[in-house]
Amino acid sequence: MAERLNPFDAALVYLGGRYQGTGLTPEGRICYQGFLENVIRGKRQSLSSLGGVLTGYNLNFQNVSCLKNLINGGLVLSNYTNQGPLRGLWHSLAISVAVMDETGREMHWVQSWGSNRLVAIVHTAIAESVGGIIVKVPGQWGGGTQVIIDALSHNEIVGLYPEGRPQRRLGPATRGAGRIIYRAAEKERRIIIASCLPDGRDLNISFQSLAPKEVLGAQNGNLDAVGQNVMLAILSQLPVTVK
């Protein structure tokens, strides 16, 4: 269990969390407020138990049964749309709920941010509360690569946004993400992609399982090509209007 935050950090988490918590229904805001209060107390929480935050939205999953392949761990790769509730971060919550329903296991999302100290305080507190894998340089990861690979080697279910940063439209994968995907495929870890798109009150996620050989292809260690192949696979499941 993490320590209770000091008053200054607690105020930052409260304000930063309120900024993040847009687009929620009144019932969802109550659940989200409880989540923030637990972060401030240093209480450990599971993302899969926070589905009430999305009360009033319809979670529409396609091919969700392929998540059963993650029962012994693996890597989930999702596009990082900033559209929809929670300034786009609804997808990490929704995917965590789906993974728990299909595997009975909690997943751990890679959390990263830049050098802004105040932002780092907010993100660190939230990541520690929900069991995130914390690395501090978005999109690059550096030494964080080994932390992620170690988690996969211990059969954890790891969530990663290859784009590194939230974007309105689908962006390219970072080289750091390509390295992680390549290493995971080399070790023959299960890889699932999630194509996420909000449409009003409908939150749509389509899942697809990728075989390690399909991910590696004939790239011969070309990390950029590996990452972009995954983004093309994610793109292929999105409606034409967002491509």
Question: Which key terms come to mind for this protein?
Answer:
243 residues; 8 helices; alpha/beta; seven-stranded mixed β-sheet
What Rg do the Cα atoms give? 17 Å
Question: N-to-C terminal Cα separation, in Å?
Answer: 42 Å
Give me the side-by-side strand order of the main sheet: 1-7-6-2-5-3-4
Beta strand count: 7
Strand content: 15-25%
Class from helix and strand fractions: alpha/beta
Please, could you describe this protein's structure?
- There is one protein chain.
- The chain is α/β, with parallel strands linked by helices.
- It has eight helices and seven strands; from the N terminus they run H-H-E-E-H-E-H-E-H-E-H-E-E-H-H.
- The protein has a seven-stranded mixed sheet, sandwiched between helices.
- A hairpin with a 2-residue loop joins strand 6 and strand 7.
- The longest helix is centred in the first third of the chain and has 16 residues, at 26-41.
In short:
The protein is α/β, with parallel strands linked by helices and 243 residues long. It has helices spanning 7-20, 26-41, 90-103, 117-129, 144-153, 175-186, 212-216, 223-235, and strands at residues 58-62, 74-78, 108-111, 133-134, 157-160, 191-199, 202-210.
How do the strands and helices of this protein lay out in sequence?
Blueprint (H helix, E strand, L loop, with lengths): L6 H14 L5 H16 L16 E5 L11 E5 L11 H14 L4 E4 L5 H13 L3 E2 L9 H10 L3 E4 L14 H12 L4 E9 L2 E9 L1 H5 L6 H13 L8
Parallel strand pairs: 1-7, 2-5, 2-6, 3-4, 3-5
Antiparallel strand pairs: 6-7
Helix pairs in contact: 1-2, 1-4, 2-4, 5-6, 6-8
